[in-house]
Amino acid sequence: MGDPIKRALTRRRIQRGYVIDEEPNEKLIIGVKFTIAMTACMSALEVAHMAYVGTWNSEIFAAITGLSGTVIGLFVGQKS
What we know:
Blueprint: H1 4-9, E1 11-15, E2 18-22, H2 26-52, H3 58-79
Antiparallel strand pairs: 1-2
């Protein structure tokens, strides 16, 4: 089936009637996977902080927002 992140970052273009797939750099794929994993870890950290301390931590939320914005920016930038 393939790697869904690699498939999402692959750019397709048509040139002279042929479909050409331009695969992304392997470092970009690893970076996106790392950023997604860190976003998941930060989200779990925020849930644990709320469960044990009982308050919202805006610094953790800012980190989550920054990481998710980076992932979205990578997907949008790579496709265009």
